[in-house]
Amino acid sequence: MENDTKRFHAIIKGIVQGVGFRFFVFQYGVNLNLNGWVRNRYNGDVEVVVEGPKDTLDAFLEKLYQGPQMAHVDKIDLDWEEPRGDLPTFTIYESE
């Protein structure tokens, strides 16, 4: 069933810091009622962990590839995982 709960861990690479990427991701996560988090990594990447219905995650992932206007996504390393039900309401974490 397409609405089964799924989870993914994504590392977004490219011009994704200093361009509002975390807030962009946060807004979509909240608007789509997903659980998860986003944070900057010290190497310049952005990291996202999210859980929700599979079709909603697919739509969310499309937004990650687009990013905000000033961003440029080169690549997303994506790992689908089993859902654990341990994620908060979508939030922004401090940089790793």
Automatic annotation (TrEMBL):
UniProt entry keywords in alphabetical sequence: Hydrolase
Coiled-coil features, chain-numbered ranges: none
Pfam families: Acylphosphatase
MF (Gene Ontology): acylphosphatase activity
Catalytic activities: an acyl phosphate + H2O = a carboxylate + phosphate + H(+)
Enzyme class, broadest EC rank: hydrolase
InterPro entries, A to Z: Acylphosphatase, Acylphosphatase-like_dom, Acylphosphatase-like_dom_sf, Acylphosphatase_CS
Domain Acylphosphatase-like: 7-94
List of catalytic residues: 22, 40
EC number: 3.6.1.7
Similarity remark: Belongs to the acylphosphatase family.
PANTHER family found in the cross-reference section: ACYLPHOSPHATASE
Name of the protein: Acylphosphatase
Organism: Pelolinea submarina
Taxonomic path: Bacteria, Bacillati, Chloroflexota, Anaerolineae, Anaerolineales
